[in-house]
Known about the structure:
Strand content: 5-15%
Mean pLDDT: 96
Distance between the termini: 24 Å
Number of strands: 12
Strand order of the largest sheet: 2-8-7-6-5-3-4
Order of helices and strands: EHHEHEHEHEHEHEEHHEEHEHHHEH
CATH superfamily of the largest domain: Type I PLP-dependent aspartate aminotransferase-like (Major domain)
Helix content: 40-55%
Largest sheet: 7 strands, mixed
Structural class: alpha/beta
Amino acid sequence: MKQIYLDYAASTPLDPEVLGAMLPYLKSNYFNPSADYSAARQVAQSLAKARSAVAQVLGAKAGEIVFTAGGSEANNLAIKGVMDAYPEAKVLLSAIEHDSLLIPASRYAHDTIKVDRSGRVDLEDLKSKLDDSVVLVSVMYCSNEVGTIEPLKQVASILRVEKQTRYRRGNRLPLLMHSDACQAANYLDLHVNRLGVDLMTLNGSKMYGPKQSGVLFVKSGINLRPLIDGGGQEFGLRSGTENVAGVIGFAAALTKAQSLRETESRRLRELRDHFISRLQSGFDDVNINGSLTQRLPNNVNATFFGQDNERLLFGLDAAGIMAAAGSACSAAKSTPSHVLAAMGFNEDYAHASLRFSLGRQTLKADVDRALFVLKTLII
């Protein structure tokens, strides 16, 4: 029985080219880049080249790229790093953020921005909550659960106006914008100046790179407190011997993902639309969650009214099809999706919802097989 993987939003397979780029640093080039001998200096040069490659993709400076052990650490550094520097200030974040943002934010003065039924942030609610104490606003680039793409440029525009107003009033508190872009790297433009962000998170394992690799873009001049103290690596923001192979793999994965972005987005958009069309025409009592227009090309999130998503997932798994009920990080908690709740849906609705996320290895035959099996499971 062929195994069909439809959970690319949770994790992606390591690209063979990325593994090839990493292997020398897992075998022969194992030296600590902080050492003084020539072999170590060569590794340090490779680390610098990888940093510059990431910076080039983001339209940033090499000194603005901080390597981390994944997206969760980068998100924590963004929240805690800013809020520890301004402990009397407040953080605003959308109600559908990943737990690696919501949980650290809960330790500080904070508020959440409402989203509409499609998962798009309510810009008027954002404006109403931008009081003089807000130092950081965090809005994800796109939802890992329902695939909705957020209006980052409009958020950035609102913050620019607010900063100008504050300045005229004599309020010198920074107003920074962070975005969790972990799901965006394969499909969307990541140029930080075009997006208007001050901080941005990326995760290697979501773009066919190694797990436990990530980046936080930190715009020059931002006052950020480190999470990990020690030897002062990563510009003092992330001490510890660098995961050189992970960094090399991350840079290779990001470069390839962005080079394939347009062609792969077109291919997956056709598969996604086929999947959604077949669900809408061939199934009774089904609803597609998330925006149908501002949506990641690989995301299909659907609610099958009256069904139990755990039973459906077990049935799909028995047929060799791997899907999800929501975020992989929250799946083990067996709690209903906070994303769907924020969008205005109740627990019964959330417990009847499934997420299918497509990727580079997904074929039309795989989608059709998943649809066929789903049809047999619906009672």
